[in-house]
Design brief:
about 180 residues, mainly alpha, 13 helices, elongated
């Protein structure tokens, strides 16, 4: 009966929504089920840490995951984390998610720090998906400037050489003053 329970989609989804480290205990077919993983990742992006390498390298799968949650980029294969379009999609996805969260916080101010605590704990450690891009992209002046124009918080995730460059920082803050928070 334990195998039946481990293969039950509802039980499995509840388990990984609560704690992504439950993934290895799911029935093997669910661990590799593309649709199940995309649904689970919408609720807890950390489940992608346990997704099969083949899916983490699959452009369509990762693109779908990133559209739902920009933080999914963290778990993508390196070649996808080097893809400018995919990284920019992840950046924009995280910006949209923050806007929704900010809207919810202002609609329900008393819930801040209470009802959403569990959800906030599952959010990526970084506020910009640029943090999950390859080092090469975080050093690319043109790409980072584009990222900053989409997300002022991206400067904080850029390579230190850019964050310490007064000319680059001036250009970034001219584009969006909030970028100053990410300067070194």
């Amino acid at each position: 009966i334990a195998e039946e329970l481990r293969g039950d989609r509802d039980i499995a989804l509840s388990a990984v929504t609560s704690d992504a480290t439950a993934m290895p205990y799911l029935a093997p077919p669910l661990q590799a089920d593309r649709d199940f993983l995309l649904i689970a990742a919408k609720r807890n992006v950390e489940v992608l840490r346990f997704a099969p390498e083949a899916l983490r390298a699959d452009r369509d799968f990762v693109t779908s995951a990133v559209r739902s949650h920009g933080g999914a980029l963290e778990f993508a294969a390196a070649e996808l984390r080097a893809d400018r379009d995919l990284v920019m999609l992840a950046i924009r996805s995280m910006v949209e998610a923050r806007a929704v969260q900010d809207e919810e916080d202002s609609a329900f101010p008393s819930s801040r720090g209470f009802a959403f605590t569990d959800l906030e704990d599952r959010q990526p450690r970084h506020r910009s998906a640029l943090a999950f891009a390859t080092e090469e992209l975080t050093k690319d002046r043109d790409f980072v400037m584009d990222a900053i124009e989409a997300d002022a918080e991206a400067l904080a995730c850029a390579d230190m050489s850019l964050r310490e460059d007064p000319t680059f920082v001036l250009k970034a803050v001219t584009s969006t003053g909030l970028a100053l928070a990410g300067a070194a």
